[in-house]
Amino acid sequence: MRYFLSMVVAIVAAVIAATGALGGSMSDAAAAKPTLAVVVVGAGRVTSTPAGISCPGRCVATFSAGSRVLLTQKARTGSRFLRWGGSCTGAGACRVRVSALSALAAQFVGGSTTKPVPTPTPPAKGTIQSGTYSGRGTGGYAVTFFVPAGVGSVLDFSTAGIAARVNCAGGGSYDNPFTILKVTIKPDGSFTGTTSQSAVVSGKAATITYNLTGRFQGTSASGATTAVGAYREDIVFADMPSLKCTSNDQPWTASRSLLSPKGPIQSGTYSGRGTGGYQVTFAVPAGGGSVLDFSTAGIAARVNCAGGGSYDNPFKVVKATIKPDGSFTGTTSQSAVVSGKTATITYSVTGYFQSENAAGATTAGGVYREDIVFADTPAHRCTSNDQPWTAARTG
After folding, report:
1. Within 13 A of 135's CA, how many CA atoms are on the CB side?
2. 161, 174, 164: which is closest to 200 by C-alpha?
3. Which CATH number describes the domain made up of 2-110?
4. Is a pLDDT exceeding 50 seen at residue 75?
5. Fewest beta carbons less than 10 Å away: which of 48, 200, 207, 393?
6. Are the CB atoms for 157 and 163 separated by under 8 Å?
7. Which uninterrupted H or E stretch holds 273?
8. Range among 104-118, 230-244, 253-267, 301-315 rated most confident
9. Same fold flag, 2-110 and 125-258
């Protein structure tokens, strides 16, 4: 209390000095006006009626002689008003008759004296547009994803290639495509997703992990919803778990480029490309209930084996049922002989029907994968890894 009152006295002295210093540059009429000085201690604000005082910190205002000024205090969140000091005392209303020089202090306790960081306003549900989004990551790599009707998720986020190669501590690098099939959009417009796959990288068994973060953040000049974020790819080798290989976090930006389909999934023939430029084809029969004969002209990357060796086989899944949300998943296996050895080859495909392109044709995207298990060495891992693909109705 003694410190608080001595501080008020010091403020009065400072104001007297400041008023004197200013007097030479002020008009005689202005200099003659009574002065009110206020200092705010703690997390709060003081304003006056009539107007003139409005501050945290310290402020000074002049009023007409004999003016009755009402001071109002307001605490910030987490703080409370404790008391007045100087021309007012206690914790009640503060009314000051300004006839000469008056000074007072308002003390708040608790909370923070720093200005709070404003919380970003999340985009309204209706401002996140459904449709296909496209943009760029570091190095100019294309980024695409799809937001279905209802804007509840981000589907098939992929890049034409990692924006920066996956570099390893101690040397070595790898260049892999990046795909995450589905991430839920939170109420504030943000989304975060992580997925992993068992893989073979340069003849070594490994686990590849993909991480994605992003946020929808308003609209572009053309009225299209925009989004920003970062993605990352990490590789851990089974025989060297301490070896760190990562793309590091790579920033990306995108905006809605294609509208959602105007109608149901179109029946007909679809064609497109997978990683490496391999052709992808499938058909959707009348009624749009399934994907038939999903195949490639060749595996987008050869089926490589841990410990060495590779195989190049065509890929085919005969039928995959289309779910109500436009997704489909199909798996099929065959008993085979590969390089003179009995084996089982398993084919898997996952995808989502997406927007209509500029020609009005339904588009789709996803990943496919081929795995080979040899009867005499079942632990021997041979796989194409997950390979992204895109396609559109062509006939």
Report:
1. 21
2. 174
3. 2.60.40
4. yes
5. 207
6. no
7. strand 268-274
8. 230-244
9. no
What class has domain 125-258?
mainly beta
> Comparing 25-34, 71-80, 137-146, 214-223, which segment has the lowest mean pLDDT?
25-34
Q: What is the CA radius of gyration of the chain?
A: 34
Query: Tokens at residue 312, please?
Result: 């190049």
Q: Backbone phi, then psi, for 6, in 5-degree steps?
A: -65, -30
Q: Which two tokens stand for residue 6?
A: 């001595």
Q: Which amino acid is at 101?
A: L
Per-domain boundaries in the chain: 2-110, 125-258, 268-393
Residue type, 209: T
Domain 268-393 class, CATH top level: mainly beta
CA 105 to chain centre: 45
Longest dimension (CA), the chain: 108
Read off the tokens for 355.
């927007």
Per-residue model confidence (pLDDT) at position 78: 79
Phi/psi for 211 (5° steps) reads: -125, 135
- Return the C-alpha torsion angle 254, 255, 261, 267, nearest 10: -30
> What does the pLDDT read at residue 217?
87
The pLDDT tens digits for 48-71 are: 999 889 988 888 888 888 889 999
The position carrying tokens 């107007």 is: 51
- The per-residue pLDDT for 100 is 77
What is the rounded distance in angstroms from the CA atom of residue 367 to the CA atom of residue 370? 11
Count of beta carbons in the 10 Å neighbourhood of residue 69: 22
Report the chain's mean pLDDT, rounded to a whole number: 83
Span 156-205, pLDDT tens digits: 998 876 656 788 988 888 877 888 999 999 988 999 999 999 999 888 99
- 32, 4 in Cβ contact below 8 A? no
User: What tokens does 281 get?
Assistant: 């084809």
